[in-house]
Amino acid sequence: MILSPGTKLGPYEVLSSIGAGGMGAVWKARDTRLDRTVAIKTIEGKFTERFEREAKTIASLNHPHVCTLFDVGDNYLVMEYIEGAPLKGPLPVVEVARLGAQIADALDAAHRKGITHRDLKPGNVLVTKSGVKVIDFGLAKGGSPVRGEQDVTLTKPLTGEGTILGTVPYMSPEQLQGQEADARSDIFALGCVLYEMLTGRRAFEGKSQVSIMAAILEHEPAPITEHVVPAWLDRIIRRCLRKNPDDRWQSARDVAIELCEPPAVSGTVPRAVMRPWIAACAALALLSTGLGWYAVRRAGFRQQPAGSTINAALSIPLPDGTRLTGAYPNLALSPNGASLAIPLLKGADSLVYLRPLSEHSWRTLPGTNGAHRVFWSPDSTQIGFVAGNKLKRVEPGSGEVRVLANIVDMHGGAIQNPIWAPDGKIYFRQSFQMNTSAMYAVPDSGGTAVKLYDNQLIRPYTIWLPGGSLLEAGSDGKAAIYSLNEAKHKPLEHKLVTSRFQFIPSEPGALSGHILHGIGSRLFARPFNASSLALSGVDIPLVDAVDLVVNTSDYRFSAAGNGMLAYMAPQARRMVWRDRAGKELSEWTAPGGYDFPRISPDGNRVAYMVRDSETGEIQAYVSDSAGERAMQFDPNPGWERQYWSPDGKRLASSNLKLQVIAVRPVPPAVGELTTWPRDGRAVLMDWSPDGHMLLYNRQAVMPAEIWGLPLANGAKPFLIAKGTDSAFSPDGQFVALRGPQGGYQLKRYPATGEEWSLLPEGQSLGSWRHDGREFFCLRHAGEKDEMVAIPVRLDSAQPQIGEPRVLFDVPITGARVGFHVTADGQRFLMVMPANSSAPPEIRILTDWRAVLKEGAPVEP
Length: 860
Fold this sequence. Notes:
9 helices; 5-stranded antiparallel sheet; 6-stranded antiparallel sheet; globular; mainly beta
């Protein structure tokens, strides 16, 4: 029916066209009797069965988020005129929760009348100043009402069996297959709508309707990586989108409640008896910081004080294609809690990435190439970082980068825990050997770094205390304080903490507050008095699962005075056997995660490290090649790597805590342990093919050096070459070595000065085939890593090196990928994240102080 302005339909005067679609057109009109604006829906021809059904459907509903039916004519419906726009994303999380709950409530009201919408989509949801209105029940199907609601039953069939009705991108699998749709079909469509509200794109996409249908039937939606999505909201959406209706939420009411009442991540809160839940949803509010992180207000629920909030842990995925930087990545929350900074690798270079928490995307800071060890100025306006043997700062607003001081930097190992203090200076510890380091200070405007003092703390972490003191604690628990006012350094008799820690005053400048620190896989807070330097009370768990850098006490977290807490969620790790094409053959997992596998020469056993999930300590293990019959090789924690002797009868390892390099038989026997003092920051690299020498990386100098440790009594270590990773060739005549500038070279052993390039862009520890014909290593390749095999011929005076061959891709996950290859070069044992498709997450606890009141940890 074509109408023009001024046309009369009974008492209704047409004003203008609103739109057309489906089987009807919609017009804006005026009710001349009541002088109000209405919407009129018309069709061509007479009043059909579909219009009759829609009229009865809408008339049976009386709900604030469903459009109201006013009147019925011969071939038209008169409905409430809604001033609003169709739903469109992306929207902030708080709006997704608020509007999504209203949509779910509208569906619940319909479902309780036995009505299934069957065509829910953003175009059928109008957003008004007061919320949403669900429209167009033209495809709605009547059925049996929900138990307890017997007032209306619609029974007329709309279509024959097997007919598909709806809008394809939002249809459930059962609808596409011509099966009967029910309330759970609407819940699937609701999941599609929520996904689109968050991302601005459809959950299922394709170039044609057929490809979209295939995506709905066979695939999962792409992970939401470009927006900050709380874990609880992602879980709600994913459950809506389950293929099997039985696996979805079984009622829209449940979805509405979940959207209004996110899980209390600071502890379990019994669900109280509810008043009408719409009032509860209306209490969704921004945090008082106004930063775009949202807590859900519990007003409207009994047993909960008005205005109280639920603490929430929200997830931020790393930017696409990025990874954490080496062994010492850190993240830094600005003191005001407004922004997050982290150094990340993309390709071979690192940059500082910035994430204002009020925004939905990361941005890089130009001029921060090679950055690590980021930290903020006290006023949250500038970011300090270490790069290229220099201490620098960058102003995110202007992008200006300034060099503050020249330092000796060893890839993050030498410069520890820089602090930008309120007194206008930056304090940092310069390490030279494992037990030799000094504290320096430099003006934040730049200048010469001045040495303040030396001490012998092992892996110390430093905090600045109100009143002008530096407090340090080493990984052995020993502590010391340096008074900036009196220039005195005083060791403390009592132990403090044994991991990275942070002091947060109870209020700005206060001498009382809490120290945050890690134990095992958990993060704790404990009351601390900065005047008496005394811990009190008990450790209260804040987070149940926080990431810890392997073989250090460097927990990845950062807290702000306003209650924000950012931390890196740990990734579960698995051991995977792969063939040369990358096909996974088998796997096994451990709760604490694996690191550094080494296959025995006969291929029947594997030595590896496991992080204990309770204590955080690294333990040495040996098992068969299937990961079964595992044996803890040594009860002492702190072992870093294990290397098999050429005959497979012994293992060599270095121990961080005991400060030794050790060799023992397999299985271990009492009294058969030989040790050598560990040389500073020595890390074992390989065992020579003749069994007479160990290689280790001496990191106490810059650039790092590869040394040989003869196993004969009385023999002294000697320098072999500059470099980091190294591995003897199987004939013992060459060493594959990753140089200070990266990439692998082949050097003759003993050294003659000759060298050949193996792989300019190689990274990670490499591995030889037993006959020396191939060398394997990982290399970066844009948005992925590649396992490459380099053909080598070592049976001549001049080694021949072929072109690298890519064997298979390794997805970039942000976690280190350790691997070893069998003697024949046919199988690879790799340490990978348990879920390779899930990148590491940074999580934000919106108010860690609230957890102190409840004494319960955040669920991982």
